């Protein structure tokens, strides 16, 4: 009986889930962009600007033109559901790709990504 109790007690923690996160509340409303820059080409997609968590605050990521990771991929916008923040990502028939500017090794996927913007993409890459 003691052995059975120990086995059951030992199994419970093995199936428990642990989650670590910082709750900072919902982000501010999105900024309004009066003019979207002209598309650099037919294979580029406009990504609207969005807020993203940075420590205990939110930072604004300006909108930008980018090429999807593969043909047919669609951008799933970042959002906050009232409890948690969900980062944006690419999805489609070839799978899920997390948002990551590091994939642009040739500096040709994200239009104007490599010039100095006031949203400091390099800071964004470290989160």
Write a structural description.
The protein has a domain at 40-127. The chain is 15% helix and 22% strand. It contains 2 helices and 9 strands; from the N terminus they run αβββββββββα. The chain has helices at 2-15, 121-125; strands at residues 45-47, 50-54, 57-61, 64-66, 74-76, 79-80, 85-86, 89-91, 97-98. The chain has a 3-stranded antiparallel β-sheet with strand order 5-8-9, with no helix packed on it. A two-stranded antiparallel ribbon has the order 1-4. β6 (79-80) and β7 (85-86) form a beta hairpin.
What does the secondary structure layout of this molecule look like, with pairings?
Layout: H1 2-15, E1 45-47, E2 50-54, E3 57-61, E4 64-66, E5 74-76, E6 79-80, E7 85-86, E8 89-91, E9 97-98, H2 121-125
Antiparallel strand pairs: 1-4, 2-3, 5-8, 6-7, 8-9
Q: Which key features would you list for this structure?
A:
15% helix, alpha+beta, two-stranded antiparallel sheet, 2 helices, three-stranded antiparallel sheet, 9 strands, 127 residues, 22% strand, flat
Structural class call reads alpha+beta
Helices and strands, in order, run as: HEEEEEEEEEH
What's the total number of strands? 9
Fraction of residues in helix: 10-25%
Largest sheet: 3 strands, antiparallel
Estimate the strand proportion. Answer: 15-25%
Query: Looking across the biggest beta sheet, what order are the strands in?
Result: 5-8-9
Tally of individual helices: 2
Q: Radius of gyration over alpha carbons? A: 20 Å
Low-confidence runs of at least 5 consecutive residues: 113-127
The dominant shape is flat
| Ends distance | 50 Å
Question: What's the rounded overall pLDDT mean?
Answer: 75
């Amino acid at each position: 009986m003691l052995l059975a109790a120990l086995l059951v007690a030992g199994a419970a923690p093995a199936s428990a889930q642990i989650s670590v996160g910082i709750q900072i509340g919902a982000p501010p409303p999105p900024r309004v962009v009066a003019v979207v820059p002209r598309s650099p080409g037919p294979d580029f997609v406009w990504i609207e600007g969005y807020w993203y968590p940075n420590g205990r605050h939110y930072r604004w990521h300006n909108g930008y033109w980018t090429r999807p990771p593969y043909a047919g991929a669609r951008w799933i916008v970042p959002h906050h559901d009232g409890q948690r923040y969900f980062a944006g990502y690419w999805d489609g028939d070839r799978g899920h790709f997390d948002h990551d500017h590091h994939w642009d090794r040739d500096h040709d996927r994200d239009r104007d990504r490599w010039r100095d913007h006031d949203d400091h993409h390099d800071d964004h890459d470290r989160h």
